[in-house]
Design goal:
The protein has about 130 residues and is mostly helical. It is about 80% helix and about 0% strand. The protein has helices spanning about 1-10, 15-50, 55-75, 85-95, 100-130.
Length: about 130
């Protein structure tokens, strides 16, 4: 039953691939900015305003919202980005360490670009080697 729901979700893609990459990149950058806010709030609380937890509370709320947006993007866009469920899970786990979302986005985009180049190279090689065009 649950697998059938996943398969139905994976068949329906709302965004194009380019739109999906743009949205995921924005979410990854936003999540990294959330980490920066949270770390800055902790530093302000520790070194500039000792005993005042307001900077951490404010930064923590922004970080939490940006984290949830990143998680929604990773979980909602994985079919559009042609990821497996395992890759989507890794994308979600990448948001736990600071700036992990950026590292995952860079890795995933590099992997996608190299697969696209490989597919393009195969098409060119097939065209050049086929008997129909000689």
């Amino acid at each position: 039953m649950v697998i059938a729901l996943f398969e139905k979700f994976e068949r329906n893609q709302i965004f194009t691939e380019d739109e999906g990459w743009m949205l995921f990149r924005l979410a990854a950058i936003g999540e990294a900015c959330g980490w920066t806010l949270l770390i800055s709030g902790m530093a302000i609380t520790r070194y500039i305003l000792p005993g005042n937890n307001i900077p951490v509370m404010i930064a923590g709320q922004f970080h939490g919202i940006l984290f949830l947006l990143y998680a929604a993007a990773a979980a909602g866009l994985y079919p559009t980005l042609r990821w497996s469920r395992k890759q989507a899970l890794v994308a979600l786990m990448a948001s736990v360490p600071p700036y992990g979302s950026l590292l995952f986005e860079i890795w995933a985009r590099h992997r996608f670009d190299s697969s696209e180049f490989r597919r393009y190279a195969y098409c060119i090689a097939f065209t050049l080697l086929s008997d129909e065009h000689t």
